[in-house]
Amino acid sequence: MNNSNRMVLATYLSLTLLILIFTTLYALESPALYLKFGVRTAMLLTVLILRKKFWTQRLLILAFLCTILSDYFFVFLRATSPDLPNRELFGMVGFIAAYIFLIAAFQRRFSFGKREVLTLLPFVIVFGIFLSLLAQYAVGFMFVAAVILGIVLCYTGMTMVSTLYRGYFTKSDAWLIAISGCVLFFSDIVVAFSIFHPAFKPFLLWKENIIWGTYMLGWTLLLIIAGEEKLTLNSSRL
Q1: In sequence order, what are the beta bridge partners of 232?
Q2: How far apart are CA 103 and CA 121, in angstroms?
Q3: How far is CA 130 from the centre of its chain?
Q4: Which of 127, 71, 130 is nearest to 98 (CA)?
Q5: Is there a domain that residue 131 lies in?
Q6: Other CB atoms closer than 10 Å to residue 119's CB: what's the count?
Q7: Which stretches are transmembrane (predicted)?
């Protein structure tokens, strides 16, 4: 990890802590929501500024951009226009697009054999269990979007974990990618409960802190990937 990445890691872990503090103090009121959206916007600006050598890193720009669009609906408009029709649906569409870009970024040396099936299976099982628990609360386009997002999320998780054995990225970076994929998968499962399950819709401090702690960690790790100078085993690869 180079010096700029160490600075990125320290900065955004500190900002994550600040988000958790503001969430504790202000719950879902404007100060906490504006801080969250501001930090996420800063992450997009950071990924734009970082020097990028590989196509994977350039594709991450598009993934970050899509998440900012989602955060606009999930976070910013929650402060300014919380009753906007289909606000959460538009946010989910943005995350579907973001995960598709993550798949494109990390699906190097593509194969789909026994290892990939075994890697995918835990994601599918977990998603299937939680879908069965939430299906009765999701209707219409929200249900369709949730299923599509879940399928894409499972494949994204598998793709990111598969970097550990596909031999394209360095081992240390593959671990960061894999951890990010698992953390983001877990974060979105909690988000799904927050959106659909009546018991989880109200503000719960522990729930919000889990969502934002894991969400920020996952994308901070991807910021580090975006700034790596020796991302692949052959550093001349683009």
Answers
A1: 169
A2: 17
A3: 18
A4: 71
A5: yes
A6: 18
A7: 7-27, 59-77, 89-106, 118-135, 141-162, 174-197, 209-227
Number of domains into which the chain is organized: 1
CB atoms within 10 A of CB 16: 20
Look at residue 140 in the predicted model and tell me its pLDDT: 85
- Whether 232 is covered by a domain: the verdict is no
CA distance 174 to 225: 9
Three-state DSSP class for 232?
A: strand
87's tokens = 């606000």
Q: What is the pTM of this model?
A: 0.94
Host H or E run for residue 193: helix 171-196
Do the beta carbons of residue 163 and residue 174 sit within 8 Å?
yes
Q: Is residue 117 part of a domain?
A: yes
Q: Compute mean pLDDT per 10 residues along the chain, 238 residues long, and list them.
A: 88 98 96 98 96 92 98 96 93 97 94 94 96 89 93 98 95 97 97 94 96 98 94 70
**In 10 A of CB 83, how many CB atoms?**
7
| pLDDT score of 233 | 82
CA 85/CA 105 separation, integer angstroms: 32
Tokens of 126: 């977990």
pLDDT at 235: 61
The pLDDT score that the predictor gives to residue 198 is 94
Which distant-in-sequence residues (6+ apart) come within 8 Å of 60 by Cβ?
Answer: 47, 101, 102, 105, 222, 225, 226
d(CA 152, CA 64) in angstroms, rounded, equals 16
Q: How far apart are CA 52 and CA 50, in angstroms?
A: 6
Look at residue 3 in the predicted model and tell me its pLDDT: 83
d(CA 7, CA 37): 21
| 167 assigned to some structural domain | yes
Task: Tell me the β-bridge partners of 169.
Answer: 232
